[in-house]
């Protein structure tokens, strides 16, 4: 296929404006500090610094311009062709039938300019496994998604021909876009409760630290810190208490705003043979996971949210790109456990959860308590040698270490239910993992000298999530570990060797 025979498309000109704004945004702090707050051109170093920043800004803008100018894409019936590159042009092609999912992302600036970013993912693990269209009009995005739907439909018709079919090209098939079925939508009340039960209420502290650090690189704030310290020393307890309360309330508000911006209008949908997750207020994103690529289900519970019976659910999907893995795999960020299990049982019935899980024997607790904590020993040594006056803090440290091991013993459970393996692991934060035998790549059993004395083992299960997604259960009885290994190694040709995805 020659270049002349294809209809080539460029990105809209407003995408160039978008990229220039993104460059200016990345330089905004040094520009404001050097050209507005501290606009001093008297020193040679100041002149060199300001000229250097302007040159870097200009070079970055030129790079974005040539990147936009060189970028083109075209499609025929089977392949998408892309030409891109800033200074050096690169050409590549990608078969349409290999594209497994389309992820759309609409940050605030994109929505302001009326464009959408599309990422086409083949679910393979290589640099050329996907490509992005960083800014197309919504109607063009819809056209491309419709083309992919037609390709998927033709591939299905080719893989499973109808009975008595003679020539697939003789009949014109009308392609209908898969109907969307809403599986779950987050409510405002759920987002508020999740904000109050997460560490996002402390978001003000890292944000303030980042801002102060950036300013301090250009302006010395030592005098300001000294003034604040003097005020704290001489202020009354009531004034300090009101200050702390105000900061905490402000942090709660900031945490809620962050969660509303990130998870507002959250929708979990099923469209044909794929799961679609949409979320975000200012930055709107929509990402897909093919059902056939789902390798396992993981239910997560943080320490605080366990008190409120709130969990998060994510899918382990084969071949998901690294930069989309975490975002696209989370299908329920925070919901009541009962609602989460209802959604999983109704719409992900290829995974069967066990009613009863086995607990660890008491000898496993002794292994956990006797296992050496190198972190505890190292910290204790440093404190006892250099900071003996603070040695009483070591009581709290070892209480946390021992308490975590007790919690790990209480929460760790496991079950084999036919083809399925279910693990519940963790201490302060707990994770429940469920997969079946055909989706497991390998099972590895290990045993340390300490575990050998108590006849227990560790078992590692690997599935195809990204490259390999590993899940380990520690200190289970040796006979159970051997039974799991034997269970995995006994394949039947009819069922087990037919690995999904």
Helix content: 40-55%
Molecular shape: globular
Distance between the termini: 32 Å
Mean pLDDT: 79
Sequence of strands across the biggest β-sheet: 6-5-4-10-9-8-7
Assembly classification: single chain
Poorly predicted residue ranges: 160-175, 321-328, 497-501
Major sheet: 7 strands, antiparallel
Beta-strand content estimate:
25-35%
Structural class by helix and strand composition: alpha+beta
Cα-based radius of gyration, to the nearest Å: 28 Å
Number of strands: 20
- The number of helical runs is 17
Write the layout of secondary structure elements.
Layout: H1 13-26, H2 28-37, H3 44-70, E1 72-75, E2 79-84, E3 90-95, E4 101-106, H4 108-113, E5 116-121, E6 130-136, H5 138-159, E7 180-185, H6 188-196, H7 204-216, H8 222-234, H9 237-263, E8 267-271, E9 274-279, E10 284-290, E11 294-301, H10 303-307, E12 310-317, H11 322-329, E13 330-336, H12 337-347, E14 358-359, H13 362-370, H14 374-386, H15 393-411, E15 413-417, E16 420-426, E17 430-436, E18 440-446, H16 449-454, E19 456-463, E20 469-477, H17 478-489
Antiparallel strand pairs: 1-2, 2-3, 4-5, 4-10, 5-6, 7-8, 8-9, 9-10, 11-12, 11-17, 12-13, 14-15, 15-16, 16-17, 18-19, 19-20
Helix pairs in contact: 1-3, 6-9, 13-15, 14-15
Please name the defining characteristics of this protein.
501 residues, alpha+beta, seven-stranded antiparallel beta sheet, 17 helices, 20 strands, 45% helix, disordered C terminus
